[in-house]
Amino acid sequence: MRYSPSLLIQTEPQQKHLQLINSDRDGDKDRLMEWAARKYVPRCTSCLPPQRTSHLVCRMHRVMFSTSLHSIDSVSDCHGSGSHTLTHTYSTNCDDVLYPVVYLINATSLAKNNAVEQLTVDVVHHKVHVVIVTESWLTEKHTDGCLSIPNYTLYRRDRHKRKGGGVCVFVRSDVDCEILPVCNDLNVEILWLRCTFHGYVYYVAGCYCPPKPKYDVGLFKCTLEDGIEMFSRDVGSEIIIIAGDYNSFKCEFLESQFGLEQIVRVPTHGPNILDKVFTNRSDIFSTCVFNSLIKTKHKAVLVSCAEQLPSVYSSDRLKITLFDLREHNLDYLRYMVATYDWHTCLASRDIQVVYDIFLQSVHELISHCVPSKTVTLSSRDPPFVTPLVKSLLKKRRLLRRRGRINEADAVATKINS
User: Fold this and answer.
1) Region 140-146: what's the mean pLDDT?
2) Would you give the distance in Å from CA 199 to the centre of its chain?
């Protein structure tokens, strides 16, 4: 890479014209280098083609200069728009499991800011097939387009002519699904689905019973009974999963009359188990309760088989360096930059040599002063999952596997904030 003296300007440390990023995600080195580049700041006048590199980007013109080896998906033309757009696609249909994974959450509104994006992160991270959301708080003004999760189909049962409540279910595209016409009463918030996955038939119900329903609670019970009796006449090995937020509703009849078992053993709202999952195959499915990324008082419930086949991924992976930007590390780096001998860098009259030595020196100082770790991003990750979020998600997963649930919930709270 050649550098022309006409492309070098001087700037104040507080002016943020520099940003060092990896792929399409804002990296952390920009904050380290924006003040380190006290004398030389690259400023561009034309666009360079995409390369398999990390990139030093001038925010004013967004032209990329290679600085170290990494990969990038693609770069669109920036002429006229003043910015590069990095395309990034991801897929969720990339696992190989025998039984579907079900995710239950009382979202207390999917219409609030970033709720759908936060739900998407959890869904993709846990490779969920069926997502049951209670208290969706959706109305006619909320279109399916603004609630979409890539590769998932949305089924809704919004509360009729009143605010709050509601149930919706996201079903992944590799699961065949249809709505069952069990109940015609619009006040009852129960959504019955018939799903087929790997040759098995699943009857799935998403339920929400409010603390003080406006209708006779017996109608809610009859709807559950009618649904179970409707498909219990079929001959086969169908699997039943009834999940939702029941509040104070008495669900014991599902166990005594229909032989289902409630498999959530841990409180989901304060000291109470409000979010419950009933199934006729408790020998297959188990549950895990944890803090969702969505800001809600309810915990999420993940229903999965303990003996799932290992997941197989065939996607491009991008390794990104994540720096520890705590204040004491930055102070140490500031001190080292201030006391570094720059005479070697300024001794040459060749501007290219000066620039190369400067970059090498800065990278050496960063590597020496700031601890770092590598985070792997793949094409299945949503674009808004930054390297820091991916690192925290991995930390939360490891803590949960070790049984340190409280620490894992604290990490989830940190991600939310």
Assistant:
1) 89
2) 29
- pLDDT digit string, tens, across residues 349-374: 888 888 888 888 988 999 899 988 88
In contact, 274 and 106? CB cutoff 8 Å: yes
Which is more confidently placed, 241 or 322?
241
207-237: buried (b, 16+ CB within 10 Å) or exposed (e) per residue?
bbbbeebeeeeeebbebbeebbeebeeeeee
The pair of three-digit structure tokens given for residue 371, joined into one six-digit string: 């601890």
- Helices and strands: H and E segment counts in the chain: 9, 19
| 250 vs 393: CA distance, rounded Å | 36
List Cβ neighbours of 401 (8 Å cut-off, separation of 6 or more). none
CA torsion sign for 219, 223, 226, 228 is negative
Which of these, 1, 19, 27, lies nearest to 318 by C-alpha position? 27
Report the range of poorest mean pLDDT among 81-90, 120-129, 265-274.
81-90
Asked if residues 304 and 101 have their Cβ atoms less than 8 Å apart, the reply is yes
Q: What is the pLDDT of residues 188-213, one digit of tens each?
A: 999 999 999 988 899 999 999 999 88
* Of residues 76, 79, 127, 32, the one with CA closest to residue 327: 32
The CATH architecture one would assign to domain 102-305 is: 4-Layer Sandwich (3.60)
Q: Where do the domains of the chain lie?
A: 5-89+315-385, 102-305
